[in-house]
Amino acid sequence: MINNNAPRPLRVGVVGMGWFGRTHLDAWSSVRGATVVAVCDRDPAAMADVGDAPQEAFHSDAGSGGRRPIPAGVARYEKLQDMLAAGVDLVDVVTTESEHEWCIRTALEAGADVVVEKPIALDPAAAHELVELARARDRHLYVAQVLRFDPRYIALSEMVAGSTLRHLSFARTFQSVAHQVYGRTHPVLNAAVHDIDIAVWLVGRAPERVSAYGSHLLGHEHPDCIDLVLEWGPLRAVIQNSWHLASTCPFGFTFDATIQAAEGTWTLRSEPVIHAWTTAQASAPEMWLWPRYGGARQGALVSELQHITDCVADGRDSDRVPLSQVLDVMETCHAAITALSSGQPQTLTKAMP
């Protein structure tokens, strides 16, 4: 029997048809209560159903299987304003980082709710303005921080909850080719931001002081080795990012986290759960963040988009990634970038509640 009273699915428009935009598009098909009705990219070639993305060179472990076609019936637009005029409830912004602010502002002013891949903007002032705009327009703004939806990090956060934290350490390594792609903006904003976010999540607030050290071994504009020290009084978090992982590694990046507290020590490592050796190659498929198996996208990204869909349906902000902590993370990132350029530790002012 057809239930004519069932709520209609949330109409989603995805902006940005690069590698991760395509991954988002694929993930939305696994989300209940939402359907993608439109995609948008100012480059028509990005919306073609054939082609390669540079990320495939170091994200082949994600199971994307190359560029997946845009589903039939999904409208294609080159201008965000045209997509908004056609009618969408939620705009999913997966563009390059420098375009986030404009896309968010345009969508909110048109009356749509917005989810944006981290970072929300390139500087704290813009982030504060966007949060205030969402409140003024009575719209909801969500910032995607996929690690908060990774079962490994969820379990870690629950295990350490209530502990007297003593020291946090995070290390993340990427293949050098990734720096050629993600070096389009400062790596603090598109890489270290992950571990900064986890540190803020576990501690519950922004640090009081940030020190930073960087190296430019690849000769690029932005550093390819970063060491950050976040301080909350005597508690410190050490965050290390580098782009020198051997290209023979069967996955695009590695990471580990160690949380030390008065009550115990917890360690999380990115060890593959599946190793595959064939006559062609050795591989280790990524099985947690956005893997594809069983004919559909799975993992933390799907859980994240499902959470946001449920929040929009309920008319509420996210309690998993509260905007107060989004602003704390932005303040911390800005302090880290300033410390890297100046060589001087930075003291943070409290982010807006």
UniProtKB/TrEMBL annotation:
<dbReference type="InterPro" id="IPR051450">
    <property type="entry name" value="Gfo/Idh/MocA_Oxidoreductases"/>
</dbReference>
<feature type="domain" description="GFO/IDH/MocA-like oxidoreductase">
    <location>
        <begin position="188"/>
        <end position="248"/>
    </location>
</feature>
<dbReference type="Pfam" id="PF22725">
    <property type="entry name" value="GFO_IDH_MocA_C3"/>
</dbReference>
<dbReference type="InterPro" id="IPR055170">
    <property type="entry name" value="GFO_IDH_MocA-like_dom"/>
</dbReference>
<dbReference type="InterPro" id="IPR000683">
    <property type="entry name" value="Gfo/Idh/MocA-like_OxRdtase_N"/>
</dbReference>
<dbReference type="GO" id="GO:0000166">
    <property type="term" value="F:nucleotide binding"/>
</dbReference>
<dbReference type="InterPro" id="IPR036291">
    <property type="entry name" value="NAD(P)-bd_dom_sf"/>
</dbReference>
<dbReference type="Pfam" id="PF01408">
    <property type="entry name" value="GFO_IDH_MocA"/>
</dbReference>
<protein>
    <submittedName>
        <fullName>Uncharacterized protein</fullName>
    </submittedName>
</protein>
<feature type="domain" description="Gfo/Idh/MocA-like oxidoreductase N-terminal">
    <location>
        <begin position="10"/>
        <end position="144"/>
    </location>
</feature>
